[in-house]
């Protein structure tokens, strides 16, 4: 948990520094709205259940099936805001309501809103002025009790503005909770399919429906990882889901195994001795290997992710690894490989 918190703090500071230096790059990719909210809901549901608070994500009215935005940055914003809501809520609920803000003929003003409402500790009017300032929290006791850098809201606000949208606090009061709105532009919706059920178009995940038990039954995984601790942790997790796991210590060992044997997915650590994951992936692709490769890295920076994809990886997961996300990714790519 400490390493996970440290990673979040470092990434926030690095991202904030990039924004200050105007070096943040934003992508424009087509995103499945259902898949986006499903990923975020899956990430936070265990924590909500641990705290015995209700956590829901619903659509209000019709929403676009897909939008064009930066998936990494938009998810980063939602993770910050929803993470805060769950952290500061000790009882009651956290809800995320996704809805369309239509501007009629002015298509460029159309937006998709994510309203994050909680029944948490709330914020007084006096404290609200400090919320969107870097390294600031409502008061010093907040940092002592709940932790955090005080960067999350300011970083999320600037990222939202960078996407052409905004982050606003619509309501907050001590003891009554808070309501934040993340809003991103979506342009014309005339060619978009509108849906009212956010489960209507999630990414294929039929084999991941049951995240625990036999979610990976029949799936053969090659794990290239040099850390003995990570080898044990990851292999135990996957075997608990009935996966078959073959372990190698570096990229040089991974290449002949991946070429000679049939694997459904390869988990490739990027920082390994002798031959790292970047070069091993490049060589495998050059040799005609079509097996899905998911990169594992301690770095969450966009440049690292881009480099892994350019090397030939299908996806990128950041350590410490979220077990549910890992199981979902493997089930998804194993299913894609079957097709």
From TrEMBL:
EC number from the UniProt entry: 2.7.13.3
Catalytic activity: ATP + protein L-histidine = ADP + protein N-phospho-L-histidine
Annotated ranges, domain Histidine kinase: 1-188
Enzyme class: transferase
Alphabetic keyword roster: Phosphoprotein, Two-component regulatory system
Domain named Response regulatory: residues: 220-334
Any one Gene Ontology BP term: phosphorelay signal transduction system
Coiled-coil intervals, chain numbering: none
Transmembrane annotation, as ranges: none
InterPro entries xrefs: CheY-like_superfamily (IPR011006), HATPase_C_sf (IPR036890), HATPase_dom (IPR003594), His_kinase_dom (IPR005467), Sig_transdc_His_kin-like_C (IPR004358), Sig_transdc_resp-reg_receiver (IPR001789)
Pfam family, any one: Response_reg
Residues modified to 4-aspartylphosphate: 269
Organism domain of life: Bacteria
GO molecular function annotations of the record: protein histidine kinase activity
PANTHER family: HYBRID SIGNAL TRANSDUCTION HISTIDINE KINASE J (PTHR45339)
Protein name (Swiss-Prot/TrEMBL): histidine kinase
Phylogenetic placement of the source organism: Bacteria, Pseudomonadati, Planctomycetota, Planctomycetia, Planctomycetales
């Amino acid at each position: 948990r400490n390493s996970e918190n440290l990673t979040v703090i470092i990434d926030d500071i690095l991202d904030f520094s990039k924004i200050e230096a105007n070096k943040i790059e934003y992508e424009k990719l087509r995103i499945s709205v259902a898949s986006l909210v499903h990923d975020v809901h899956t990430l936070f549901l265990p924590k909500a259940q641990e705290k015995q608070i209700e956590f829901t994500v619903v659509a209000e009215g019709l929403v676009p099936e897909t939008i064009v935005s930066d998936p990494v940055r938009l998810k980063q914003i939602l993770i910050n805001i929803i993470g805060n809501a769950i952290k500061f809520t000790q009882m009651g609920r956290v809800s995320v309501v996704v809805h369309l803000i239509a501007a009629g003929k002015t298509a460029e003003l159309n937006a998709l809103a994510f309203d994050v409402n909680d029944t948490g500790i709330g914020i007084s009017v006096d404290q609200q002025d400090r919320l969107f300032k870097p390294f600031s929290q409502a008061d010093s006791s907040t940092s002592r009790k709940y932790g955090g850098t005080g960067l999350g809201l300011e970083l999320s606000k600037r990222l939202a503005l960078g996407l052409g949208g905004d982050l606003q606090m619509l309501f907050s009061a001590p003891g009554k909770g808070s309501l934040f709105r993340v809003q991103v532009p979506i342009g014309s919706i005339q060619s978009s399919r509108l849906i009212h059920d956010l489960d209507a178009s999630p990414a294929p995940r039929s084999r991941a429906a049951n995240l625990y038990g036999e979610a990976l039954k029949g799936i053969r995984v090659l794990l290239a990882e040099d850390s003995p601790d990570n080898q044990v942790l990851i292999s135990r997790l996957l075997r608990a889901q009935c996966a078959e796991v073959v372990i190698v210590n570096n990229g040089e060992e991974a290449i002949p195994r991946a070429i000679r044997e049939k694997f459904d997915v390869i988990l490739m650590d990027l920082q390994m001795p002798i031959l790292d994951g970047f070069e091993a992936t490049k060589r495998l692709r050059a040799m005609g290997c079509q097996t899905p490769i998911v990169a594992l890295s301690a770095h969450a920076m966009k440049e690292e992710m881009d480099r892994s994809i350019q090397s030939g990886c299908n996806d990128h997961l950041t350590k410490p690894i979220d077990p549910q996300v890992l199981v979902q990714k493997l089930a998804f790519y194993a299913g894609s490989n079957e097709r």
